[in-house]
Design goal:
Elements: H1 8-26, E1 28-32, E2 37-41, E3 46-53, E4 64-66, E5 84-89, E6 94-99, E7 108-116, E8 119-137, E9 141-145, E10 150-153, E11 155-159, E12 163-168, E13 171-173, E14 179-182, E15 185-188, E16 197-205, E17 210-226, E18 232-236, E19 241-243, E20 247-250, E21 254-259, E22 264-265, E23 272-274, E24 281-283, E25 292-300, E26 303-322, E27 325-328, E28 333-342, E29 346-351, E30 361-363, E31 368-377, E32 380-389, E33 398-406, E34 409-424, E35 433-435, E36 441-446, E37 448-450, E38 454-459, E39 462-463, E40 470-473, E41 478-483, E42 492-500, E43 503-513, E44 522-528, E45 533-538, E46 550-557, E47 567-572, E48 577-579, E49 587-595, E50 607-610, E51 621-622, E52 631-633, E53 639-645, E54 656-667, E55 670-673, E56 680-684, E57 691-695, E58 702-711, E59 714-715, E60 719-724, H2 735-755
Parallel strand pairs: 2-8, 9-17, 18-26, 27-34, 35-43, 52-60
Antiparallel strand pairs: 1-3, 3-6, 4-7, 5-6, 7-8, 8-11, 10-15, 12-13, 12-16, 14-15, 16-17, 17-20, 19-24, 21-22, 21-25, 23-24, 25-26, 26-28, 28-32, 29-33, 30-31, 31-32, 33-34, 34-37, 36-41, 38-39, 38-42, 40-41, 42-43, 44-45, 45-48, 46-47, 46-49, 49-50, 51-53, 53-57, 54-55, 54-56, 54-58, 58-59, ...
Keywords: Cell adhesion, Disulfide bond, Glycoprotein, Immunoglobulin domain, Membrane, Repeat, Secreted, Signal, Transmembrane, Transmembrane helix
Pfam families: fn3, I-set, Ig_3
Organism: Bombyx mori
Length: about 750
């Protein structure tokens, strides 16, 4: 190829043309982000930037954006933010396009325009929209009911349409016998508690590569199921009570209580309280009318269940009828007792004077019979019992206690059965009534009878009439007569005659004149010591006077002939007739007389007694009547208390007592001292002592104890006693340990011998 030669002017023109072409190629517009086509999720915000690239940016006009319809997109007015607007950044030759929330209608071709040295510049971008995965009905917490079909809802929208699959606890779920995957959820057939857990609903849009998961927690609700319990509850009238009702269910059920007979909701009824969360029904002050059927209803979101409970109100018996009755002797007597309560009161009787109750049916050989019955009375049960006593006698009279009892408690009430009987004087004394020297006396008559008797007095077969010396007081059942016997003709037999509707009785009273007693028949010496003498006295007959009350003695020394100077000693009847503080070796004269209400009788013949010489004291006597050979079991293991009477000193005062005790054994029926070395003698320096505690005895050991009194003339004969101490250990160690120690000593000895 041949090149044509070009001149200088041509060269200059070519250089300018090349420069112009090169400058045009160096300036353009760029849209960021750089992509000719962009896909944006509906609802998302979009920002596009139009940027001028030129050697001299100042020569580029401010870019402008046009929408898919070719309309210029304006900048936002101050204080506004429209859906689509632009924003200029002149310093950087930038123009920003803002779409706050893109919709499918906003999709299309967006272009940016500018000029550079009058050369037009432009760039464009295509915006496509799609719908992102959206959960429209897919609650994160859903609840199914056991035994029913349930669809776990998971509605999801997207453009393009998503595909959905399911997982439970990370394990995939496929359609089968129990699971069916629907477009809007997962159907679970016959829901069980094992279906409880977390399910995952996964949505995928393959065209956009979008993936989303929704974790749904499924709780399986179970309808209330009543726990087994007793169908009958017993509560007591007057007390507070509570009844529980329990049901298993998910969620935990709430409870209501209704009384079946009235259909009352007990939550709003006085005296009742219902805890709807625990099912506890509380009664405040139970009433008898609260018995009957109660319905406990348990409800939760899965369903409802109820149970019926029979409430028995235990009503403590109340005795409302028991009347006192009267019946004649030899006839039949009845007492009827009625009581109400629930359950039916059991009624029984007992006589208050006897702790044992009568049994239902025949008692006392059929003479006493108890019959019982019961029947419904309103909201309680009425029971009655009748005690029937045939052939009544006086011992049947008295208080009878009716006892009514049931499971709620007991009640008692007394009724009196009065047995009518003819008058009797069984408790009246039959002793004569005495008077002397014209003294006024009372003749008293008390007649026992039901009904009360009237009393009349008779004397010498005629009705007694009042005179100045006879006064009658009372006409029954108590009556008495005062008599002043100035005339001996008033002495004699008086009769008290008592009469009532059942008969008559009389009581005889001897009114006799009294005289002093006759002389003592016999007085003889019985026991004598150096300083005392005891007599045996036989008194006179009491036919002519009141009973002997005492005996009196006079005594003097034999050398004294004047009885007016004698000493006196008086004893009550049947006491020891002992004269003390006499002088040894002296001779005394004694005489005796009897005493009654009238006075002292005549003196008997004197008795002369010669007192013996001084001697050691008499033998002491134990205060209790104890045999010297019998064995006494003591209360204590280490001591025994002696008690005695001070013996006669026989002319010389007692200056001490000697106590000697020795361990003994009984061999061939005889007591023998086991070891004289173990005998202990103790002295008690006191003449007035009457007790002494022997100490230091061994447990479970038999002792012979001697007690002797002493004066300057010597010792008395010993008072003897055999004592066995109680089991135990005086050192505080129980007897079984002492036994164990003894056995251990024996075992130790055997071991030593064996080792040797």
């Amino acid at each position: 190829m041949r090149l044509k030669r070009v001149g200088a002017t041509g060269v200059t023109t070519l250089v300018v043309l090349l420069a112009t072409i090169t400058g045009c190629l160096a300036q353009n517009l760029r849209i960021l982000p750089i992509s000719k086509q962009q896909t944006v999720a509906v609802g998302k915000s979009v920002v596009l930037t139009c940027q001028a690239d030129a050697p001299d940016p100042a020569l580029v006009t401010q870019p402008q954006w046009r929408d898919p319809k070719g309309q210029i997109i304006m900048e936002a007015a101050a204080g506004t933010r429209p859906e689509i607007y632009t924003e200029a950044m002149p310093a950087k030759q930038l123009q920003l396009l803002y779409i706050s929330s893109i919709t499918p209608a906003m999709a299309g071709n967006y272009s940016c325009e500018a000029t550079y040295t009058n050369i037009p510049l432009s760039a464009s971008v295509i915006l496509d929209t799609f719908v992102a995965i959206t959960w429209t009905n897919a609650n994160e917490n859903q609840y199914a009911t056991k035994g029913k079909d349930f669809k776990v809802m998971c509605e999801v929208t997207a453009e393009p349409a998503p595909s959905v699959d399911w997982f439970k606890e990370e394990n995939p779920i496929v359609t089968g016998d129990r699971y069916v995957i629907h477009a809007n959820g997962l159907m679970i057939k016959n829901v069980q508690e094992s279906d409880d857990g977390t399910y995952t609903c996964r949505a995928v849009v393959m065209q956009t590569g979008e993936l989303a998961e929704r974790n749904i927690k499924l709780e399986v609700y179970t309808a209330p199921e009543m726990e087994e319990r007793e169908t009958t509850v017993r509560i007591k009238e007057g007390e507070s009570a509570a009844i529980t009702c329990k049901a298993r269910g998910k969620p935990p059920p709430t409870y209501t209580w209704i009384k079946a007979s009235t259909r009352e909701n007990l939550a709003t009824t006085s005296r009742f309280n219902v805890n709807e969360n625990t099912g506890l029904l509380t009664f405040d002050r139970v009433e008898a009318a609260d018995y009957g059927k109660y319905i406990c209803s348990a409800v939760n979101k899965a369903g409802q269940n109820e149970t019926e409970i029979e409430v028995e109100v235990l009503v403590k018996p109340r005795i409302f009828e028991l009347y006192n009755t009267t019946a004649p002797e030899k006839q039949e007597g009845r007492l009827e007792c009625k009581a109400t309560g629930r359950p039916a009161p059991r009624i029984s009787f007992r006589k208050r004077s006897n702790s044992e109750r009568f049994v239902n049916g025949p008692n006392d050989g059929g003479r006493i019979t108890i019959e019982t019955s019961s029947h419904q009375s309103g909201d309680q049960i009425e029971s009655s019992a009748v005690i029937m006593i045939s052939n009544l006698n006086r011992t049947d009279d008295g208080l009878y206690e009716c006892i009514a009892e049931n499971d709620a408690g007991e009640a008692w009430r007394n009724g009196h059965l009065a047995v009518q009987f003819r008058p009797t004087f069984e408790r009246m004394p039959t002793v004569p009534i005495w008077s002397w020297n014209g003294q006024t006396v009372n003749l008293t008559c008390v007649a026992e009878s039901i009904p009360n008797a009237t009393i009349k007095w008779r004397f010498r077969d005629a009705d007694l009439v009042e005179t100045p010396h006879i006064k009658i007081f009372g006409s029954g059942p108590i009556s008495y007569v005062t008599i002043t016997p100035l005339d001996r003709g008033l002495y004699g037999i008086y009769k008290c005659v008592a009469t009532n509707t059942l008969g008559e009785a009389e009581h005889v009273i001897q009114f006799r004149e009294a005289f002093p007693p006759g002389p003592v028949v016999q007085a003889r010496q019985e026991t004598i010591t150096a300083t005392s003498v005891t007599f045996n006295i036989v008194g006179p007959a009491e036919d002519m006077g009141p009973p002997i009350l005492a005996y009196v003695a006079q005594f003097k020394e034999n050398a004294n002939f004047d009885w007016n100077l004698a000493q006196n000693r008086t004893w009550s009847v049947n006491s020891p007739y002992t004269v003390e503080n006499l002088r040894p070796m002296f001779t005394y004269d004694f005489r005796f007389a009897a005493v009654n209400q009238v006075g002292i009788g005549s003196w008997g013949s004197p008795i002369t007694v010669i007192m013996p010489r001084r001697s050691p004291p008499e033998q002491p006597k134990w205060r209790e009547n104890l045999s010297s050979e019998s064995l006494i079991h003591g209360k204590y293991a280490d001591r025994y208390e002696l008690k005695w009477k001070i013996p006669a000193h026989n002319g010389e005062p007692i200056d001490m007592y000697e106590i000697r005790y020795c361990p003994v054994l009984k061999i061939s029926g005889e007591w023998r001292v086991s070891s004289e070395n173990e005998c202990v003698t103790q002295e008690l320096k006191s003449f007035e002592a009457i007790t002494y505690e022997v100490r230091g005895l061994h447990p479970d050991t038999r002792y012979r104890i001697h007690l002797r009194a002493h004066n300057q003339l010597g010792f008395s004969l010993p008072a003897q006693l055999y004592v066995q101490t109680a089991l135990g250990n005086p050192n505080g160690c129980p007897s079984y340990l002492r036994w164990a120690n003894t056995k251990l000593d024996i075992i130790a000895t055997v071991l030593v011998l064996f080792l040797v």
